Amino acid sequence: MASLDWYIRSQLKLRHLQLLVALDDLRNVGKVATYLHVSQPAVSKALSELENNIGLKLFNRTVHGMQPTIYGGSLVVYAKRILAELGKARDELRALISGVEGKVTVGALPAAAVAVLPKAIAALKTQSPVTAISIIEGSMDTLKPRLREGEIEVIVGLLPEDDPLSDVETLFLYQDNMVLATGSHHPLGQKKHVTWDELRHSPWILPPHASLMRQPIEEEFRRHRLALPSDYIESVSTMINVGILQHGNAVAFLPSVVAHYYARLGVLAVLPPSIPKLVHPVGIMHMKNQALSPSAMLLIATLKNIYEKG
Fold first, then answer.
1. I need a labelling partner for 261 at 20 to 30 A (CA). Which of 29, 72, 74, 223 fits?
2. Has residue 309 been placed in a domain?
3. What range does the domain containing 41 cover?
4. 137-149 per-position pLDDT tens digit
5. Which of 135, 132, 127, 124 is nearest to 99 (CA)?
């Protein structure tokens, strides 16, 4: 154990971390060699030396390629975090050299992409014009791993259910409800009263099964004695969903702030049926035991200030 501690503290190099991450991502020695611009024997030798020095088997060769052991998988998680932090340090230094005062990378869930983040970014830029902001839009299942790996500092959008054992801290901003929306040209969009039975044969846009809202939406169909749609598209992209509604005859569940934003622009129509059971908290997520950059703290403070006033 003492030798393991000594090796990690004084002998583990960046090239070892890069090797571990490449092996985990590519799972093939030949591809790793090409990626790192070295020979295949050099990759095998480096891995063997690393395993011998640590005293643990990190990867197994299988018919499905290189598979991490429990020890390798654990080390890869930390290797990704370290490399991500170094990448942020590089970006921060480049930004400072070019006159930018810090940078924050934000993950945007669909509920945040249209109204929440744009409003906060406008306020932040008024306060700190030279703070750089990078935005990555996606679903929770694509953004959360990047949060854990340190590539993203905060995620803004629909909050998951409280879990005291989670490694993610959540900060509540406001409650939003889902509404039914369609294109402004749709015949149902002109009616003051629409029943669920009228929606029975409509094409739908639904969130994917991995989305936090998929199960509540399916329960809403069952509550109104409607079969789950057979004519549907799965998407979490706000722009794609709005485009499909604008150019077709589909109906979609959308966050209220999103639907009403596009309704004010004349693009969408919000349908009358209320959905009281589809209310969800929108907020901020970040890692519990990971220090936030000054730029990330500034963004969080800006968001809190906007919604505490509202």
1. 223
2. no
3. 2-80
4. 888 888 998 998 8
5. 132
Model confidence pLDDT, tens digit, residues 251-265:
999 988 889 989 999
CA distance linking residue 211 with residue 253, whole number of Å: 13
Exposure class string for 135-174: b at 16+ Cβ within 10 A, else e: bebbbbeebbebbbbbbbbbbbbbbeeeeeeeebebeebe
Q: Are 137 and 146 in contact (CB under 8 A)?
A: no
The amino acid at 292: L
CATH number of the domain that 124 lies in? 3.40.190.10
Q: Over the stretch 31-42, which tens digit does the pLDDT of each residue have?
A: 999 999 999 999
Secondary structure of the chain in HEC code, one letter for each residue: CHHHHHHHHHCCCHHHHHHHHHHHHHCCHHHHHHHHCCCHHHHHHHHHHHHHHHCCCCEEEECCEEEECHHHHHHHHHHHHHHHHHHHHHHHHHHHHCCCCCEEEEEECHHHHCCHHHHHHHHHHHHCCCCEEEEEECCHHHHHHHHHCCCCCEEEEECCCCCCCCCEEEEEEEEEEEEEEEECCCHHHHCCCCCHHHHCCCCEEECCCCCCCHHHHHHHHHHCCCCCCCCEEECCCHHHHHHHHHHCCCEEEEEHHHHHHHHHCCCEEECCCCCCCCEEEEEEEEECCCCCCHHHHHHHHHHHHHHHHC
Rounded to an integer, what distance in angstroms lies between the CA atom of residue 269 and that of residue 246? 10
Domain tally, the chain: 3
